[in-house]
Design brief:
The protein is mostly helical. The protein contains 23 helices and two strands. The longest helix is centred in the middle third of the chain and has 28 residues. Keywords: Membrane, Transmembrane, Transmembrane helix.
Length: 561
Amino acid sequence: MEILALISFGLSIYAILRVNRLESYLKEKFDGEIKGEVVNQKTGEAEPVFGKKESTANIFSWFAHEWPLKTGALLILLGFIWLVTYAFLNNWVGPLGRITFGFLSGSAILYLGEKRLKTVSSQGITMTGLGAAVIMITVYAAQHVYSMFPAPIALLFTSLTMMMTAAVSLKYKVRSLAIFSLAIGGLAPLLIGRAGEGILGLYGYLLAVTAGVIWLAGYSRWKILIFLSMVTISFYSFSYFFPGRIFPGSILLPQEFFYLKFFAVTFSSLYFFTILLSVVSRKVEVPDLLAAAAHGLFTVGWINGIVLPEYKSAVTLLAAAFYLGATYLVFLRTKVKNALFLYTFISVFLLTLAAVFEFQGPVLVIALSVEAALLPIAALALLNQEIAGYLLALFILPSLFSVPSLFSGKWNLGLLQNDFYALSGVTLAYLTSGFYFLGKFRQKDHSLHRAAILVTIAGAYYALFLIWKINRVFFTPDYVARMISLLIYSLAGLYFYVKGELEQRKIFYRFGMSVLIFVVARLLIVEVWSMEISYRIVTFFLTGLMFTGSVILRKSKVTQK
């Protein structure tokens, strides 16, 4: 019991510390705390109390301010536990009296805390948290020690405690108490035990808690509650996100599986519309980003857990289309880009995951390449330039997944095999998207023009690699293929090198130089030893002529200018 008391007290302190700035402000700052802001002594401007990071120094500062109150609360809680324990051992009162005393004591402390909030905020917060903790301990004892009433009654007492704490937090605008009330509601199934035996009972209760939290978050504008609520639901759902892997041996009845699917869709939809409404009505803040990211993972978890493998890609694709379609319709009516930005990237994440669910190996590389090429173009046509620019980063995925194809041993078996198709897909995707954006944005200082050049050059590197592999298949012996490839590389490298110098385009210049450095290094380190003398002579002569000719050409161009 003592350990439980310490945990409860620590939980209340932790909840307070995570969201309030410093409660070490003196009583003259109280008006600022009630308004959700304090006055900066250096600038004279009002600053929000909430949303700033807590450091270790702040924790000590919080405890140092009126530290006797915090210490006294802990001592009272321990003394209460020992008093009740002593009374129990000596049979001063029966079980009913003991539990009644616990409820009355906790309620009295909570009431006094609420009254104290009117005058000294920090003291009222501590006492309110202490009273709620005493009630929770009493419920736990009544349920597990004496089996005094069934689980629904214990859940009712817990819910009332949660609602009282939430009401106090809302009345005095103390976000820490709101989070503490969410913690009470989230811990209730664990403390009560039997409340979580059935899926319908557990998730029905969690749905009621979630609805209350969403209302509280909307009314008070404490957006972090949405994210924390999703974390709570995910805690109880984690075993269903990874069926048979994390917790093997759990078998659900058909009816339970139906309930699970119903609650998965309900929670996902509820959080989606809540986040959507939040970012449409106000500016996007860090809690919105956390909630949106958590919602994407939340959706993926349920799809991975309750959808059959053969349908996972289709369901993921459907979820992505639903999120993006609903968000786009809201954007057309409101012209607010916040939600569109958030759920465009979440939908893209789901689309990528759908490809991962459906394909493997080189086929996956091709699918990701098509997605990386088409989505930025579609975003440019339907959404805006900023989103299209961000979506160009999708090329990272096919590049990463194509690494095995670059070094595959199947190239020795011939050209027309999966790795060739995979790298051809990546190359075409890069070049198609790059040339499209270069055609749309010709201004050299435009961000999308610069991004398109990077994409095009990446495609050029893939094209040069394919040329090397194709020549090795079509030309024998091997040093003939290498000779032809190096000559092609020299032409390409010199073209971009000269173009970059003449047009003062550093990116072209550096690309051409990198190719030329490769050619020279390959000739001097590898080919000088492995080529036959005749082919070595031809290769070195032709390459040298191209190098010197490029200098003459460059100077003639400069002279003409």
